[in-house]
Amino acid sequence: MKNKLLIYFQLNIITFFVAIALIKILFNSSLIEPDYYACTQIKLMEFSIFENSFFLNYPISCDHNEYLLGFNNFNYIINNEHSYQQRPVYIFSVFFINNMLTPLYSLFNFNEFFSIIFSVIIVHVFILNAGLMMILELTDVKKISLKDKIFIVVINILHPMAKWGLFEPSNQMLTLLQLVFPIYMIKKNRNISFFWWGLLFLYNRTFLVSFLIYFIFKTLKDKKFTPRYFFEILLFFMPFSMYKIYFFINDINSFDTNTETYQQFTWIIDYFTGGNRKYGEYFCHRVPGFINCYLDRTIDLLIYLSIPFIISIFVLYINYRNESKLIKQLLISFSFFYIFWSLIGWYPLRFIYYSLGNLINFLVIYGYFKVNRNVLEKTFYSIPLIFYFLFLTMWNNPESNAFISTQVIYLSGALFVLYIYIRKKNNSNFIV
Predict the structure, then answer these.
(1) Cα 118 from chain centroid?
(2) 41-49 and 52-60 strand pairing
(3) What pTM was computed for the model?
(4) Which of 107, 117, 193, 427 has the fewest CB atoms below 10 angstroms from its CB?
């Protein structure tokens, strides 16, 4: 695949325009009745450009103002007990983009809300498409048409993590990249200093899992563990150590809302030491009960993504023989994340989505190129996915039998069966 930077740029442009269309379709039309069910509310917000003001329904999360403090003034998250003090690189990225584009915002006379939202979406789009570009490179596709770019962007942005998370300030767009990154680095023989991995850890600490997967893959590939690895591991932890040392030297209190408010992962220590534990509202702080909670939510996710899940199984079946090494690496990467999130102790559906949902998303995008041989097949492959994703409710929906209407499930399933018929009629083998 030639001109990778150009393709990445084009993907970002297409994604940005699809995102604008989604704001209209999701929040400002009668086609869909949006509901985040928890934390986020759809509010009528004022946007201004030049001398004109207009109002649009837009999702505002319960922690919007908390994020806004850091996006407007990065120093605030350092000098105060800010909920997202442990994500400094992410907060800084939005802060940097927002300040870099301030002259442009001033030229167009954007109001403050519009400026911040614009900057957040830019960062999310860049991250989302970084993961998408890595999937494209893993397919080894030689040529990608404009129609291909549009289809995969629409599928990628309509998958629920992007569809509902793209317009919020949290950095959920990173989860697909975290799953793909270690596989991409190994398969494409890319090498970056472990110091940069450490900076990604400060973007979101879940990158520790990505690093661990990459380190294991690299050790197995090299077939040896050299003393140099000890130095590289130290490099990984250097950015985090420097960040913490800064707090210590300047006598600033460090704050972690994930552990102090939600007891994420630390509940295990509290369980065995007799500390306080939380109950209800997705909390499951008991051993071995947390396993049952996690498995129950896993079943809910498979119901939530029923048609995409079936399509992903189809993709696995078609590609396993010739792509077994890549698929094994993908399943290993998924398994590490799946086990990791099982220990969080707080199980809204999105934490299962971070592993299993992104695995399904990887496979349906990968399958677009690997199981289809012409434009007709690609089109009929995409239609059931786009139709299903478009009408899928937000994952916080408390009623698993109301994730999506039965009619949409049946119609999406029928469209997939139609695709199978067309593929077979075109003499495409089921095993390639």
Answers:
(1) 19
(2) antiparallel
(3) 0.93
(4) 427
**Inter-residue contact 214 to 186 (CB < 8 Å):** yes
**Lookup result for tokens 């490099």:** 235
Q: Which of 307, 342, 291, 312 is nearest to 413 (CA)?
A: 307
CA-wise closest residue to 387 among 424, 420, 414: 414
* Alpha-carbon distances of 26 from 7, 65, 167, 308, 324, rounded to whole Å: 27, 23, 11, 20, 38
C-alpha to C-alpha distance for 334 and 317, rounded to whole angstroms: 17
- Tell which phi-psi region holds residue 214, choosing left (phi > 0), alpha (psi between -120 and 50) or beta: alpha
What does the DSSP assignment read for 246-265?
A: HHHHTT-----HHHHTT-TT
For every residue of 119-157, DSSP letters joined together read: HHHHHHHHHHHHHHHHHHHHTT-S---HHHHHHHHHHHH
Measure the N-to-C terminal CA separation of the chain; round to a whole number of Å.
21
DSSP designation for 56: E
CA–CA distance, 180 with 186 (Å, rounded to integer): 10
Phi, psi for residue 306 in degrees, rounded to 5? -55, -55
Does the pLDDT at position 332 exceed 70?
yes
What residues are paired with 47 via a beta bridge?
54
Give pairs for 88-96: CB < 8 Å, separation 24+.
Answer: 88/202, 88/243, 89/199, 89/200, 89/202, 89/203, 90/123, 90/171, 90/174, 90/203, 90/204, 91/67, 93/123, 93/203, 94/70, 94/119, 94/120, 94/123, 94/169, 95/70, 95/71
Q: What is the pLDDT of residues 8-54, one digit of tens each?
A: 999 999 999 999 999 999 999 988 888 999 889 999 999 988 888 88
Residue with tokens 């799946």: 338
CA 267 to CA 344: how far, in whole Å? Answer: 8
pLDDT in tens, 293-326: 999 999 999 999 999 999 999 999 999 888 889 9
Of the candidate ranges 191-205, 222-236, 367-381, the one whose mean pLDDT is the lowest? 222-236
The neighbour count for residue 23, using CB atoms within 10 Å, is: 18
pLDDT value at residue 15: 97
